[in-house]
Design goal:
By secondary structure, this protein is an alpha/beta fold. It has 13 helices and 12 strands. The strands form 2 sheets. The protein has a 7-stranded mixed β-sheet, with helices on both faces. The longest helix has 21 residues. The radius of gyration is 21 Å and the shape is globular. Bound molecules: pyridoxal-5'-phosphate.
Length: 404
């Protein structure tokens, strides 16, 4: 059967097989159990941890959107990542890009390593490092592209091809792009991972994660772990995810058009030393990104050279709310060094040249002129701030305290 256009896939989703009333939106099967006709033979569903029709519908839709064999929906992006890492056993080696989401770093260093998995990090945005580090003995390669918040670009085709040669599984965290802009399985990856809390849901009203797998053998192993560990997404949250997906394309078209305008505005400001946005002319990974994704996305980050100034800009904004996370229809701002990436130890952040003054914006659906005016006003307020007035100190969080 020929594949439906992605706009149609998003809006129409997957009709629920066997729905008695032909519901036009995904019904919520808010039940833990399903009565069986026979004591010795089970029907399609028996227990919601193992399978639920509402979750099944969104899982099928995710598989179709990512062009994979099977989709799996989880209670969070990290539950999805934990499941992917679950195919490794003690003694195996996981090679991860050295620029990654703080929670992923914490899962690798505080959970996976304790299970006896050897975790090594390398700059996989560098082709030479990919050749040197993706070698025999590596069992899984994990990358994010674009990364969050440094927005570095990893060449998925190169990494996946190198991993395939040595028999390693490639996992691509595509949370910053969604299948509307980037489909890693088509570039050779084995597993694509999403924090569906971000763009896929898009409304900041659900925590969810997803894995979509290229082959059915790996998919069945992951589904086994999902059931055995009990990390699947609940029926109501599956409904919210399915509902959010319907508008993914229109949200992204509009949000990334606004993001491009905001990035250009930032590039002109004297307070801004450096803007990172994957489709800006000046972005070092622009060509690779263009070869594997069809848009810059909604996340922009910038540096001011002074973390106090960055903090004042962030706190002076009114339309961008200070929030961890990104990808919602409402614009948000964060200081990743103190928020989403606080779970990466400070020494490791320094070693990787993670700028403490970096500000991350996620551009939403508000009027873009108002967003730019808000930024403009915040820069002026932050610059004219009287340095005699005391500001609250930046939070001193330790890796152990960090929630995200
Ligand atoms: C947020 C995020 C995650 C974790 O997802 P949760 O839904 O918060 O568990 C993983 N990877 C990236 C790139 C993220 O931004």
């Amino acid at each position: 059967m020929s594949r439906r256009n992605i706009h149609t896939q998003l809006v129409r989703g997957q009709p629920l097989a066997g729905d008695a009333y032909n519901a036009t939106s995904t019904p919520i099967y808010q039940t833990a159990t399903f009565e069986q006709e026979h004591a010795d033979r089970f029907g399609a569903f028996d227990y919601s941890r193992s399978g639920n029709p509402t979750r099944g519908a969104v899982e099928e839709q995710l598989a179709e959107l990512e062009h994979g064999a099977r989709g799996l929906a989880f209670a969070s992006g990290l539950a999805a990542l934990n499941t992917a890492v679950g195919v490794l056993k003690a003694g195996d080696t996981l090679l991860a890009h050295d620029d990654l989401y703080g929670g992923s770093h914490r899962l690798f260093s505080r959970i996976a390593e304790h299970r006896g998995i050897r975790v090594i990090y390398a700059d996989l945005a560098d082709a030479e490092a990919v050749r040197r580090r993706v070698t025999h003995g590596v069992n899984m390669v994990h990358i994010e592209t674009p990364t969050n918040p440094l927005l570095s670009i990893v060449n998925v085709r190169e990494v996946a091809a190198a991993a395939k040669k040595v028999g390693a599984i490639t996992v691509v965290d595509s949370s910053a792009m969604s299948p509307y802009l980037q489909r890693p399985l088509e570039l050779g990856a084995d597993i694509v991972l999403h924090s569906a809390t971000k763009l896929l849901n898009g409304h900041a009203d659900v925590s969810a994660g997803a894995l979509v797998v290229a082959d059915t053998v790996t998919a069945d192993r992951l589904a086994f772990i999902q059931n055995a560990e009990g990390s699947a997404l609940g029926p109501f949250d599956s409904f919210l995810l399915a509902r959010g997906l319907k508008t993914l394309a229109v949200r992204l078209d509009r949000q990334q058009a606004s993001a491009a305008r905001v990035a250009n505005f930032l590039a002109q400001r004297s307070e801004v030393l450096r803007v990172r946005y994957p489709s800006l002319e000046t972005h070092p990974g622009r060509e690779v990104h263009r070869s594997q994704a069809s848009g810059g996305g909604v996340v922009i980050s910038f540096e001011t050279g002074d973390r106090e100034l960055s903090k004042r800009v962030v706190e002076a904004l009114s339309l961008f709310s200070i929030t961890v996370s990104f990808g919602s229809i409402a614009s948000t701002v964060s200081l990743p060094g103190y928020m989403s990436h606080a779970s990466i130890p400070a020494a490791v952040r320094r070693q990787r040249a993670f700028p403490d003054d970096i500000v991350r914006l996620s551009v939403g659906l508000e009027c873009v002129e108002e967003l730019i005016a808000d930024l403009s006003r915040a820069f002026s307020a932050a610059r004219h701030f009287d340095s005699q007035v005391e500001t609250l100190p930046l939070p001193q969080r330790t890796a152990a305290d960090a929630l995200v």
